[in-house]
Amino acid sequence: MVENVEVESDNLEEIQTQQSSQTLEERLAARDERLSRLEGQCRALVSQVTNTSLRSSAICNKLEDLHEIYGETSRNLVTHSNPNASHKSTKEVKIEEEDEQSESD
Protein backbone atom coordinates (compact mmCIF):
# COMPACT_ATOMS: atom_id res chain seq x y z
CA MET A 1 0.00 0.00 0.00
CA VAL A 2 2.90 2.33 0.69
CA GLU A 3 4.26 1.52 -2.75
CA ASN A 4 0.90 2.41 -4.34
CA VAL A 5 0.97 5.79 -2.63
CA GLU A 6 4.50 6.42 -3.87
CA VAL A 7 3.59 5.35 -7.41
CA GLU A 8 0.49 7.53 -7.36
CA SER A 9 2.49 10.52 -6.10
CA ASP A 10 5.07 9.95 -8.87
CA ASN A 11 2.27 9.78 -11.43
CA LEU A 12 0.74 12.94 -9.99
CA GLU A 13 4.07 14.77 -10.28
CA GLU A 14 4.46 13.60 -13.89
CA ILE A 15 0.94 14.75 -14.72
CA GLN A 16 1.57 18.15 -13.10
CA THR A 17 4.86 18.46 -14.99
CA GLN A 18 3.13 17.59 -18.26
CA GLN A 19 0.34 20.08 -17.55
CA SER A 20 2.78 22.84 -16.65
CA SER A 21 4.85 22.15 -19.76
CA GLN A 22 1.72 22.13 -21.90
CA THR A 23 0.60 25.42 -20.44
CA LEU A 24 4.11 26.75 -20.99
CA GLU A 25 3.98 25.60 -24.61
CA GLU A 26 0.52 27.10 -24.98
CA ARG A 27 1.75 30.37 -23.48
CA LEU A 28 4.72 30.45 -25.83
CA ALA A 29 2.50 29.70 -28.82
CA ALA A 30 0.07 32.45 -27.80
CA ARG A 31 2.99 34.82 -27.29
CA ASP A 32 4.38 34.02 -30.75
CA GLU A 33 0.98 34.61 -32.34
CA ARG A 34 0.60 37.90 -30.48
CA LEU A 35 4.08 39.06 -31.52
CA SER A 36 3.42 38.12 -35.14
CA ARG A 37 0.14 40.02 -35.08
CA LEU A 38 1.78 43.09 -33.52
CA GLU A 39 4.63 43.01 -36.04
CA GLY A 40 2.11 42.90 -38.88
CA GLN A 41 0.19 45.81 -37.38
CA CYS A 42 3.42 47.79 -37.00
CA ARG A 43 4.34 47.16 -40.64
CA ALA A 44 0.88 48.30 -41.73
CA LEU A 45 1.12 51.43 -39.55
CA VAL A 46 4.57 52.35 -40.87
CA SER A 47 3.31 51.88 -44.42
CA GLN A 48 0.29 54.05 -43.73
CA VAL A 49 2.41 56.81 -42.14
CA THR A 50 4.83 56.71 -45.08
CA ASN A 51 2.01 56.98 -47.62
CA THR A 52 0.40 59.83 -45.69
CA SER A 53 3.72 61.66 -45.52
CA LEU A 54 4.28 61.27 -49.26
CA ARG A 55 0.76 62.51 -50.03
CA SER A 56 1.28 65.45 -47.69
CA SER A 57 4.52 66.41 -49.44
CA ALA A 58 2.87 66.14 -52.85
CA ILE A 59 -0.05 68.33 -51.75
CA CYS A 60 2.33 70.87 -50.21
CA ASN A 61 4.40 71.04 -53.41
CA LYS A 62 1.27 71.40 -55.54
CA LEU A 63 0.00 74.19 -53.28
CA GLU A 64 3.30 76.06 -53.55
CA ASP A 65 3.20 75.69 -57.34
CA LEU A 66 -0.34 77.05 -57.43
CA HIS A 67 0.68 79.97 -55.21
CA GLU A 68 3.56 80.73 -57.56
CA ILE A 69 1.32 80.55 -60.63
CA TYR A 70 -1.83 82.23 -59.37
CA GLY A 71 -0.59 84.08 -56.30
CA GLU A 72 0.74 87.09 -58.19
CA THR A 73 -2.38 87.40 -60.34
CA SER A 74 -4.78 87.18 -57.42
CA ARG A 75 -2.63 89.55 -55.35
CA ASN A 76 -2.73 92.11 -58.17
CA LEU A 77 -6.51 91.76 -58.45
CA VAL A 78 -6.98 92.21 -54.70
CA THR A 79 -4.58 95.15 -54.60
CA HIS A 80 -6.41 96.90 -57.45
CA SER A 81 -9.79 96.38 -55.79
CA ASN A 82 -8.51 97.25 -52.29
CA PRO A 83 -5.25 99.21 -52.25
CA ASN A 84 -4.90 98.78 -48.45
CA ALA A 85 -4.90 94.96 -48.69
CA SER A 86 -1.61 93.20 -48.20
CA HIS A 87 -1.43 89.55 -49.23
CA LYS A 88 1.78 87.59 -49.21
CA SER A 89 2.60 84.23 -50.67
CA THR A 90 3.76 81.49 -48.34
CA LYS A 91 7.30 81.79 -49.68
CA GLU A 92 7.38 85.52 -48.89
CA VAL A 93 6.16 84.86 -45.36
CA LYS A 94 8.76 82.11 -44.88
CA ILE A 95 11.53 84.40 -46.13
CA GLU A 96 10.44 87.19 -43.79
CA GLU A 97 10.30 84.79 -40.83
CA GLU A 98 13.79 83.52 -41.62
CA ASP A 99 15.08 87.10 -41.87
CA GLU A 100 13.55 87.95 -38.49
CA GLN A 101 15.09 84.87 -36.92
CA SER A 102 18.53 85.59 -38.33
CA GLU A 103 18.34 89.18 -37.06
CA SER A 104 17.41 88.02 -33.56
CA ASP A 105 20.37 85.58 -33.48
Q: Based on helices, strands and strand pairing, what is the structural class? A: mainly alpha
Order of helices and strands: HH
Number of domains: 1
Shape verdict: rod-shaped
Report the biggest beta sheet as strand number plus sense, adding barrel if it closes.
Answer: none
Number of helices: 2
Using DSSP, what is the number of strands?
A: 0
How widely separated are the two ends? 94 Å
Report the portion of residues in β strands.
under 5%
Q: Low-confidence spans: pLDDT under 50, at least 5 residues?
A: none
Please tell me the overall pLDDT: 78
Radius of gyration: 35 Å
Q: Into which percent range does the helicity of residues fall?
A: over 70%
Region (Disordered): 1-26, 76-105
Biased composition (Polar residues): 14-23, 76-87
Biased composition (Acidic residues): 1-13, 95-105
Provide structural commentary.
This protein has 105 residues and is an all-alpha fold. The protein has one domain. 90% of the residues lie in helices and 0% in strands. The chain has two helices and no strands. The chain is rod-shaped. The termini are far apart.
Briefly characterize the structure:
With 105 residues, the chain is an all-alpha fold. The chain has two helices and no strands.
